[in-house]
Write a structure and sequence with these properties.
The longest helix has 14 residues. This protein starts with a strand and ends in a 9-residue tail after the last helix. The chain contains 3 helices and 6 strands; from the N terminus they run ββαββαββα. The radius of gyration is 13 Å and the shape is globular. With about 130 residues, it is α+β, with helices and mostly antiparallel strands. It has one domain.
Length: about 130
């Protein structure tokens, strides 16, 4: 799959976004951060939304499965090891052994980090 779709202020993509797009998304939503949903199977991200569920719904409309989508908060101006907060209401999934908002599975965290670094902001990149 090779696409980038923009809904009103939500970006769905499996391609790297520009620093300008990331900056604009942060500015539009929360200033210093943006909510991101990640389909760990299709390696697609949804960037933006007031709630993680907003981008999650857009991903589902494009063929993603709810059980493959996890939410994070992304702080692009922090150091690369502090940019991702693995916390979202959509992460509460006792059936998938995640009973809290915080994503506990280290393997899923690693997969999400790799996808985010490939599509949003790499570990050596800085947003200025």
């Amino acid at each position: 799959m090779d696409f980038m779709v923009s809904f009103p202020n939500i970006i769905l993509t499996d391609k790297k976004i520009t620093h300008l797009q990331l900056n604009e998304s942060c500015s539009f939503w929360f200033g210093d951060m943006v909510k991101v949903t990640v389909d760990v199977e299709k390696k697609i991200v949804g960037i933006g939304g007031e709630l993680h569920a907003d981008a999650e719904q857009r991903l589902i409309e494009k063929g993603s499965r709810s059980e493959d989508i996890w939410g994070i908060n992304f702080y692009p101006w922090l150091s690369s090891d502090n940019r991702i907060e693995y916390s979202a209401l959509i992460n509460i999934r006792p059936r998938q052994d995640n009973p809290s908002m915080e994503l506990k599975n280290p393997d899923l965290r690693e997969r999400i980090q790799q996808i985010v670094e490939n599509l949003i902001l790499g570990p050596d990149e800085k947003l200025v």
